[in-house]
């Protein structure tokens, strides 16, 4: 069992809330299970899958090791092809650039393609403070935005909502945002999608400016790539006069031909499809559209400087690691307190934001059982468990000056464990407690073992978000003495 | 210091101690081709994506085109599309709102990918600008069998980044509502490929 850094209830507290939400747990288990099965089937079709993973990891590593050169090359190829390149040190600077482009064009609303980078920088909220409305156009993001809610999964952000809730959100909120939902709207998925189609089409057709992210940016040719399913991406990318793309500096691949690796790895890992319905590529300003690209740092250079953690910047945001993670499956995305949830969020957030600054962030490297399923699933072979362990040590180092409850608990544990007589005594105590608690423990864990509810302090710091198995009524050592003699 | 200088400086200092040597990139995957007939594979995978498929020859194409367009009263026809289309409207740079009032669009494609059932438009002659294959609700695409490549690596190698591209695999789709697949949220609800034997 891995030690949990306690003293910061952030993830555990949020997770406890999520764990008690049976609807969320059921929806998530269904979603992750379904996507997992689809993914396994389409990955199984590709004999050269392991080689593709190796190639993907190598290309990304090579790019990161010479990132300065690739950034300059990307800037030049974009500029040569008529795009304007902006650089943003942090979220505030990136948001300000987007807002100022909107103002230059006297635009007070923009349509948006779902993008992790723009969520990371809080673009919608920042634009709102300047009187600019940003409309999310992905169906799930629309549900989240209208419901005044947070996304819970990278790929299926509204998975925590069922169809009846979605119908209510559409009926209550669509009118204030534009075209109202039809009066007789039912909760059939096709009808709900139809209502979203009409509501959003009105926005696409009148929008003059769009904001997107990019899945890949090709340094050699200045090509940006957006991978999507619904066509809202294509609507945003092609209809408005002005397109602003916010692109993390880690999104670079060196050459056009390198895309043959990622356009195989991403769809199969992500939605479990052989290919996503739509992929758009464009190089610079095309078809008369004004194109801007904002190259975003916002902590990426901090992550780059971490020798072990650097590999997290290979991430292509496929969400495969979320769908295989036993912790994520039970808690959902909200508990991670970030736009990057799940195993990748557990390492990316501390890497981008640093350790020892924020308790919520510091709790994330512990939000894992280190089972290794995420590494197996990752199409670019990010060794998430390795980075988790590395970050745990950084968190501990950052908190070394002020010993926290866990350190105290672990010290006393090591005092007990270090001496067999003391251990025997402690075990007898445990056995007694086990007999008592086993009788009164009300919970039953999978497999029928009795579980305790909350432990008294300091054990409570650990048990708050977990079911603790009731200790056995007899210790192993006692059993050995009794049985082993025979 | 400008943001550009500062970010480049941070990148360089982050990498100061990093090993600059490059890892070898295995490329054996590029020579892997699917077993069997790529045309049959493409047809099977395309239909798997709930796109409609009609096999035809140069002779039967006009009839197939008319039937794929069905009752569409107005059909956008891009420059360079080589056949007569009943109800055809030439592309005169219609606005998005005007495109929205058309029933269907016909296009050619640059190539298609067998293993994934994907058609790729690079918006050359007969394929139209990117918006025309997006806004009308029915997209009918005419493809020759000799335009089908086996896999993604062959497609990337054959395409030029100089042209914008749209890769299309089946009609627009979403699984956002309780993971039920629904076709046509924002893009065309029907994709109909006419595959012409060559
Ligand atoms: S870490 Fe790997 S598996 Fe997880 S989202 Fe990123 S690329 Fe996908």
Automatic annotation (TrEMBL), chain B:
InterPro entries: FTHF_cligase-like_sf, LUD_dom, NagB/RpiA_transferase-like
SUPFAM superfamilies per record: NagB/RpiA/CoA transferase-like (SSF100950)
Pfam family, one: LUD_dom
Domain LUD intervals: 98-196
Domain of life of the native organism: Bacteria
Xref: PANTHER family: LACTATE UTILIZATION PROTEIN C
Protein name per its UniProtKB record: L-lactate dehydrogenase complex protein LldG
Protein's organism: Amycolatopsis thermoflava
